[in-house]
Write a structure and sequence with these properties.
The chain is α/β, with parallel strands linked by helices. The chain has nine helices and eight strands. It has a single domain, classed as Rossmann fold. The longest helix has 17 residues. The protein binds 2'-deoxycytidine-5'-monophosphate.
């Protein structure tokens, strides 16, 4: 049997990490873990349970108290062929992509207790190998011993336009300006937060996909993966 490896894909907001991670996981018959979806699910929970105050700051003591009651899990959808995220047993795959969740997720994911809870779960998911996981701290914190680490980046204007097209196609009412402001704001919070900020792992392979097609990125990452599997 072929050796199974773990693949970490980190990078800035909306640079196409999940598209490539999903495609690579499918091609290798690996388990795909979207860690951003996990932070988004806890953000949705925070919004639903009044943990975000009127001035848009977080009621941290309340959120921390309620965290023990939050169960985040993935279930495979046989129709779409994809993992979908559940919050306390309810499928929230669509709700977590709303702009309201996007606007609060970086602040929620900077809360230490939230990170401790989710990183523990992510490490457990990676134990069995054969995992493709994307996020911000996968190669540095969650899977520091991953066999392949990819650090993805793309120009902020390119990322905003791609995200905008995606959300419009999904029927959401958004403007390009609000998308760009959300993306640059999240980049800033994600790279400057105290705990586990987004940074490139020393042994990561950098992919700047500003001028690459999805196929080109997929081929590149697959070639890197196959090289490690055959090593
Ligand atoms: O990948 P995404 O855009 O869905 O992630 C949403 C937010 O979650 C992102 O702005 C920062 C946070 N996040 C994180 O802090 N650590 C991760 N491993 C993944 C996401």
């Amino acid at each position: 049997m072929r050796k199974k490896i773990n693949i970490a894909i980190d990078g800035y907001s909306s640079c196409g990490k999940s598209t490539i991670a999903k495609a690579v996981a499918k091609a290798l018959y690996y388990f795909y873990v979207d860690t951003g979806a996990m932070y988004r699910a806890i953000t949705l929970f925070a919004l639903q349970n009044n943990c975000i105050k009127k001035d848009q700051t977080i009621d941290e003591p309340l959120l921390i108290r309620l965290l023990d009651h939050v169960v985040v899990s993935f279930k495979y959808n046989t129709d779409s062929g994809e993992q979908e995220i559940y919050l306390n047993g309810v499928n929230v795959e669509r709700e977590i992509r709303s702009i309201q969740v996007s606007n609060h997720v970086s602040l929620i994911s900077a809360v230490r207790e939230v990170r401790v809870k989710l990183v523990r779960l992510q490490k457990r998911l990676a134990e069995s190998k054969g995992v493709v996981m994307d996020g911000r701290d996968i190669g540095t914190v969650v899977m520091p011993d991953a066999d392949l680490k990819i650090f993805m980046m793309a120009d902020a204007d390119v990322r905003s336009k791609r995200r905008y097209d995606e959300l419009i196609a999904a029927g959401l009412d958004v403007s390009l300006e609000e998308i760009k402001s959300n993306i640059t704001n999240r980049d800033l919070i994600d790279t400057t937060r105290e705990m586990d900020p987004l940074r490139q792992a020393e042994d990561a392979v950098v992919v700047d996909n500003s001028n690459l097609t999805i196929d080109e990125q997929f081929e590149f990452v697959m070639a890197q993966a196959v090289k490690r599997i055959e090593q």
